[in-house]
Every structure is written in C-alpha cells, then in structure tokens.
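Sample intake sheet
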Amino acid sequence: MKQLLSIISIFFITISFAQEKQDKERLLALKNANNYVYEGNNLVSEDDYVSGEMAYRKAISENPNSVEGNFNLGNAYYQKGSLMEALYRHQEAANSSVSKEEKHKAFHNIGNILMQNKKCSEAVEAYKNALRNNPTDDETRYNLALAKECAKQEQENKDQNEDDKNNDENKEDQDQKDENKKDKDNEGDQQEDEKEDGDEKEKEGDDQEDDQGKPNDDKDDKGKEGDKKDEDKKPPKPQEGRMSPQQIKNLLEAMNNQEQKVQEKMNAEKQKGVPVKTDKDW
C-alpha cells in the first residue's frame, strides 16, 4: 500500500514539474514574442519595413497565436502596399483575438484593406463586424457610410454593365438576323438571276431554231414573189359586186356618147326656134 502511494506521489510530482516546465516555456515564448513585436514596432517607425517584418515574423514563430504579431505585421504590409499579405495577417489577428477591442481593430483594418482593393460590399461587412465589437467608434461608423455608398455605386455599375452586355448581345443577335436575312435576299436574287439567265438561254435556243428555219421561209417567199409577178401579168379578175376597170371605161364612153347626142339634138332644136324644157335646180 505504501509502495502504491509512493508511485502515485511520484506520478503527480512528475506531472507537476512537466506542467511547470511547459508554463515556463510558454511564458518565455510570450515574452520573446512581445519583445520581437516591440523591436518590430521600433524598426517600422524608422521606415525599416524589411527588418520590422522579420521581427514580427519571429514574434509569430514564438507564438503563432500572437495577436500583436499578426496585427502589426499586417499594418507593416499595408504601409508597404502589399494589400493581400496585409489582409491575410489581419484575418489571422481577428481569428486569434479573444477581446472585443482586438477584434474591433482587426476588422476595422480589414475593412480599410478591402476598400483599397475596391471590394466595397465586403468592406461593409467588415466594418459591421468591427462595430459589433465596439459600437461607439465614430471612425468605423464613418468608414461604414463610405463603404455603403461605394457598394451602391458598385452595384449600379454592375447593373449598367449587365444592361450594356445584354444590349450588345441583343445587337449582335439583331445584326446576325439582318445578316442572315441579307444572305437569304441575296440568295433569292441570285436564284432569280439564274432563272432569268436560263429563260434568256432558252429564248436564244428558240431564236436559233427559228433562224435555222429561215432558208426554207426565204425559198417560200421567193416562190410567192414569182407567183405574184405572174399574177400581175394576168388581167385583173373582177370581184363580185364591183365593176372592172374595163367596164367602167366602156360605161364612161357610152355616157359621153349619149351626152354628145343630147347636145347635138339641143343645138338642132335651137336652130328651129322651138323652146326647150329644162329641169330647175330649186
């Protein structure tokens, strides 16, 4: 029994020494981390960002959850213009923070970095998180108002770009439709021209066939001309209901002879003194 108690006592004493050692090492790491943070702050204040960055990294190496190390390293990156590295370090600081004040500072700086990157909507959320941890900070509230206005303009620009894109797509579709219609019209005109060319060729073929028949027609015409000459030599045949020229000539001669006889008779009567009756032209 005494032996068992001795073993248990030794066990607890060993655990106690191990815990004490770990606590000493942890305290030493925190002390070293704080020292490196202090050193980094002094270097950055002298614009020696390269050495300051190395000091902050040593602080984080001693204590990976060092809020001061990540926060100050993020500020150093921000001042150098390395915004992506600064954003990452402030996010680490926000995740490692245990107090509201630390979280407020981390989220406030995250909002500033996002505003620099023209990510206004995300900056609005960051400033809101900062105000949740410290609602009395007027600077954060002012930055939130700016971020909201920026996000509004960002959304309007996005909507305008969407409208322009849709208009461009609609215009391209309309242009394509017009182009297709034009192609169809040109195709129809081409088919019509080809049809007209075919009709003209067909007509030319008919004309050529007619030309090939012309020699026979000429012969027939020559024969007709010969027949006409023969008919001219023959005396004209009187047509029914009409007098021939010879009959008219004979009739005129008979009328002249008759008139001459009447005139001779009248002259003979005048010589005898016998009055002559004439028809009056009344």
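Comment: Residues 171 and 177 are 10 Å apart (CA to CA). Residues 7-96 form a domain with the Serine Threonine Protein Phosphatase 5, Tetratricopeptide repeat fold (CATH 1.25.40.10).
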